[in-house]
Amino acid sequence: MKRIRYLVLQKQVTWLAIACTFLGPLTGCVVGKDRYEKALDQSNALRSAVEDCSRSRDDLLRERQDLVERIQDLEKDHQGLLEQLVRMESELGVMGERIRFCDEQAAIRENQTAGISRTYEAFAGRLSGEIDEGKIQIDQSERGLKLNLVGKILFPSGSAELTLDGKQILEKVGFVLKEIRDRKIQIEGHADNTPISPSLRSRFASNWELSALRASAVARFLEEQSGIDPRLIAATGYSSYQPVSENETPDGREQNRRIEIVLSPLTTGEMTRLYGESSLPPPASNASVPAGALPQEQGQWEEAPGEGAPPQSQEEKVEAADPVPQLQGAPNASP
After folding, report:
1. What is the per-residue pLDDT for 45?
2. Which of 134, 165, 166, 331 could form a disulfide with 237 if both were Cys (CB 3.0 to 4.6 A apart)?
């Protein structure tokens, strides 16, 4: 019985061994395939992740290139803005200089206008009688303030020697002009178109010489008797070529025979040449006070009694009354 049971058990073990022998490899194949499929899935997942990373990398590279291009554009814009800023700063500096120049010119014009007003009032006050009588006219021309003195009150007909009345009027004019330091004093002689008579041609070859000598006589008187700075004075003769009226009538010819004194502003360069870098004119000299005058209140002057003055000889009186005019500049030969 035991023998039979032993044989059955042995037979079972044998079949079990045979089953293990054949089923073992099959079980191992099943386990390897699962691992392979799992690995394959992981590989596919990794491949997909790599592709996603590659696409992301490409996108990032494109974004980086866009940023680089934007930076380059911004740098160009920045450089352009810097250059524009430099130009604007330069233009601003130029505009500042122009503004300062305009302010300086406006201040100069304002001072000149105020000076012209004061000069006009001074002339009008001292020459009121002559102005009322029509002997003197005061006008504002494009060149500056202008005094028009009728020729007959200064000179006899056909002469370049000042009359006594002419000297008295010029003393009044010189009293005002002596205070002027910032304007040129242009003295202009004018004649009518009447030819010089044969008896006078030994002294005046034409109206050019007559008009120039009369202007020079006025300039010399203002320098020597009124003490005006001669550097400010110029004398010019215009003959009959700048009339203010027609020459067909006696009244018209009388108006054309005249002396004009034009006060025109000095430029900054002229002021510097005359007075130095400060361009500030010196005060008027006491020597410019008319001879024989004493100061009174409100700037008025009256004749001094003249005690103690040495008597003049007849020759001295004639010389003082009729100074010989000198031509200070060649007359302008063009009409």
Report:
1. 86
2. 331
First to last CA, the chain: 174
Q: Are strands 183-190 and 258-265 parallel, antiparallel or unpaired?
A: antiparallel
On whether the pTM is more than 0.70, the answer is no
Predicted local distance difference test score (pLDDT) of residue 314: 37
User: Containing H/E element for 190?
Assistant: strand 183-190
The predicted pLDDT at position 325 comes to 39
Q: Which residues touch 238 (CB under 8 Å, ≥6 apart)?
A: 188, 189, 190, 211, 331, 332
Enumerate the H helices of the chain as residue ranges. Answer: 2-126, 128-132, 164-177, 207-226, 250-256, 268-275, 314-321
Count CB-CB contacts under 10 A for residue 264. 16
In this structure, are strands 136-140 and 145-150 parallel, antiparallel, or unpaired? antiparallel
What's the pLDDT score for residue 16?
Answer: 64
For position 115, what pLDDT does the model report? Answer: 74
pLDDT at residue number 275: 87
Write the burial class of residue 20 (CB in 10 Å: 0-12 exposed, 13-18 middle, 19+ buried). Answer: exposed
| One-letter amino acid of 288 | S
Check residue 11 and give its pLDDT. Answer: 65
Give the number of other CB atoms < 10 A from CB of residue 164: 9
Compute the distance between CA of residue 297 and CA of residue 300 in angstroms, rounded to an integer.
6
State how far Cα 170 lies from the chain centre.
37
What Rg value do the Cα atoms of the chain yield, rounded?
56
**pLDDT beneath 50: ranges in the chain:** 285-335
215 burial via Cβ count (<10 Å: 0-12, 13-18, 19+): buried
The pLDDT of residue 47: 85
Beta-bridge partner residues of 236? 188
Name 237's bridge partners. 189
Match 């008797």 to its residue by tokens.
225
Q: What is the pLDDT of residue 10?
A: 63
Rounded to whole angstroms, the Cα distance separating 138 from 145 reads: 7
